[in-house]
């Protein structure tokens, strides 16, 4: 592969700079349109949810005092609300969902 000297490399960069600028401008216009797909990486929460605290299955088990398998089974069975963190990734839980699960379970045992 021939070596491109710095002068040629700089010339190419100067010629390409307006094209890259135009591409960036067009990308910004597309990103701003309503219904535009998110550029977030898969498995990452949208900015509106990023500030919320999400617990892993292990953290949820520690919080509830239950075994992680119990938490996983409750989520799979639909008795515990959860969300998928992304394709091939674990489930995530909010504290209020765990509290509701614990409260509902306690009420069933008392009945």
Write the layout of secondary structure elements.
Blueprint: H1 6-32, H2 47-50, H3 57-64, H4 68-77, E1 83-84, E2 91-92, H5 95-110
Antiparallel strand pairs: 1-2
Helix pairs in contact: 3-4
CATH architecture designation of the largest domain: Orthogonal Bundle
Helix content range:
55-70%
Care to count the β-strands? 2
Report the average pLDDT across residues: 78
How is the CATH topology of the largest domain named?
Multidrug-efflux Transporter Regulator, Chain: A, Domain 2
- What's the end-to-end separation, in Å? 79 Å
The low-confidence parts are: 41-45
- Computed Rg: 25 Å
Please state the overall shape, judged from the principal axes of the Cα atoms: elongated
Arrangement of strands in the largest sheet:
1-2
SSE string? HHHHEEH
What's the structural domain tally? 2
Major sheet, described briefly? 2 strands, antiparallel
Tally of individual helices? 5
Strand content: under 5%
SS-based class: mainly alpha
The CATH class assignment of the largest domain is Mainly Alpha
Please describe the structure with a list of short key phrases separated by commas or semicolons.
single chain; about 110 residues; mainly alpha; Multidrug-efflux Transporter Regulator, Chain: A, Domain 2; elongated
Walk me through this protein's architecture.
There is one protein chain. Strand 1 (83-84) and strand 2 (91-92) form a beta hairpin. With 111 residues, the protein is mainly α. Helices cover 59% and strands 4% of the residues. It has two domains: 1-32; 50-110, Multidrug-efflux Transporter Regulator, Chain: A, Domain 2 (Orthogonal Bundle). The protein has a two-stranded antiparallel sheet. The protein starts with 5 loop residues before the first helix and ends with a helix.
């Amino acid at each position: 592969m021939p070596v491109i000297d710095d002068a040629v490399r700089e010339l190419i960069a100067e010629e390409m700079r307006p094209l890259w600028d135009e591409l960036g401008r067009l990308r910004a216009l597309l990103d701003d349109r309503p219904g535009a797909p998110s550029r977030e990486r898969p498995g990452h929460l949208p900015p509106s949810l990023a500030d919320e605290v999400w617990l892993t299955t292990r953290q949820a088990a520690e919080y509830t005092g239950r075994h992680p398998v119990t938490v996983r089974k409750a989520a799979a069975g639909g008795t515990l609300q959860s969300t998928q963190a992304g394709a091939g990734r674990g489930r995530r839980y909010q504290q209020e969902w765990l509290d509701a699960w614990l409260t509902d379970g306690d009420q069933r045992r008392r009945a």
